[in-house]
Amino acid sequence: MTDLLRRLMRTPQGAIGLILLAVLAAACLFGPWLAPHDPEKMDFLGRFRPLGAQNWFGADQFGRDVLSRLLVGARSTLPMALAATLLGTVAGAVVGTASAYLGGRWDEAIMRTIDAVMAVPGLLLALLLVSTLGNGAGNAMIAIAVTFAPGMARVTRAVALTVRGQDYVKSATVRGERASWIIFREMLPNVMAPVVIEATIRVSFAVMLFATLSFLGLGAQPPASEWGLMVAEARQYVHQAPWILIAPSLAIAMTAIAFNLLGDGLRDAMNPRDER
Amino acid sequence: MSASWLLRRLALILYTVFIVSVLVFGITQALPADAAVTLLGENATAEALNAIRERLGLGDPIWWQYLRWVGHAATGDFGLSMRTGQPVGPEMLTALGRSLLLAVAAILVMLVIAVPLGMVAAVRQGKLADMATGLISYLGVSFPEFVTATLLAMLLADTLQWLPATGYVSPLEDFGGAVRHLALPVLTASLILVAHVARMVRSETLDVLHSDYIRAARLKGLPERTVLVRHALRNALLPVVTIVALDVGYLLGGIIVIEEIFAIPGIGRQLMVAVTARDLPSIQAGALIMSATYAVANTLADVAYAVLDKRIRYD
């Protein structure tokens, strides 16, 4: 683990990604204490106050401090995206491994169905699911997890197919182990490495998808300072105060960049031979 | 490419549409909205509600409702919109036309930008141009469409006043106006695609440049330009067909957001309106048509790939 971390720090992507992630983690853990102002405190004399000593990132249409809202909002954005990715990855990994283990017609049927589900554009599927479950951050999280599962299943299956031919799986089969034992205890632990890389990159999609759902009014609800919601609310004040639009936009992009960099760094660190 | 391969692809499209139809029907049936109440309003009498339930067949078994819906949908009849009372099918198809205009324009713009960008990055690997392309790709995939769209609109429409911020003009009525109104949405949609495709073109070109036949072409003494354009480009571009097809999925999702932001009455915006109003027939039609479009685009890409690359034989 420390070896992996060291190799990760040696790739430029990994190093920058980790630093950005450390900043984001700090915002998630200590956001309310780091925030210079109360994120909900309105100040009608300070509406649209530009960037300066009093409000580093300016103030919004109610005079609320943008930086404080961003710092506190990290909590309503990042954990949701992480949870969605985790849930989708676990579900996808189980289905993918099971499909590879079962093989034959079962595998064919499961994979064609997954192909079909993936023919629904991700945002559309998430949109349909949220409209069924009802608007809200939790439901948006579940919808994103369901949207991710088929893709993760496909990735996992490809890896699991190679694992399936290994001797330890064969010996477990000969020992007469149950299917669930072989899938969960023998195969799953050995397909995790590539799945983790894929999942890391997916987190950046999850962040964007979650922010998009909130932007469309289906995810986090006001007065939450979720970043996508902040962009949606800032749009009509773009003439008076472009910074209240730009600040959360950059926060979303920075998060996505951080996870993309980390994913690429992990890939390089785990396969040192691949130069591209 | 054999006939049986084509048939199997066709069967796969049908299976895809079947699964999607089950998915869409299942999801919309689970919607916490009573179609009769949506149609008549909260204050309708019990008799009126029962009458309309009878007329819509809401009391029938669920599988029968599904079959009836699919049967009608196959003939293009998706029922009447609960919001406007108009037939949903024609409305959605008109909207799809506008969305396809936007999508095709975005793909063309993307190809014009991404292919040269990726090739230059590959030829000048490790140099400034390569790093710049890498940076553009990273930024492109890290900004969600709604952020790109809002920032571009802020810059080009509000601050510089070069382009109109919202609205749609039919190209048949006013071509110049249509181009001006489509410029911002197309730019937004193509940016994320440029990021994907430029990266892909770069890595494919690098693969090709390291191959033996390029070395042979160089050793023959052919000018570098001929080597690149005649030998490398063709082979590097082939896999791009596939990635473009996959990107159509992103594009269709992105179109929902982009049309919403730029007020383009395409299928994405219709779908958003339908979702907000819980207009079941419109949600069903929109989702099914979008997914079917994607499935067809993917198959077309596979066929194009087979036609372009004579080495590949599907059987």
TrEMBL record, chain B:
Pfam families associated with the record: BPD_transp_1, BPD_transp_1_N
Membrane topology label: Multi-pass membrane protein
A GO CC term assigned to this protein in UniProt: plasma membrane
Membrane spanning residue stretches: 12-31, 100-123, 135-157, 177-198, 236-263, 283-308
UniProt keywords, alphabetically: Cell membrane, Membrane, Plasmid, Transmembrane, Transmembrane helix, Transport
Domain ABC transmembrane type-1 as annotated: residue spans: 96-301
Family from the record: Belongs to the binding-protein-dependent transport system permease family.
Protein name: ABC transporter permease
Species per Swiss-Prot/TrEMBL record: Azospirillum oryzae
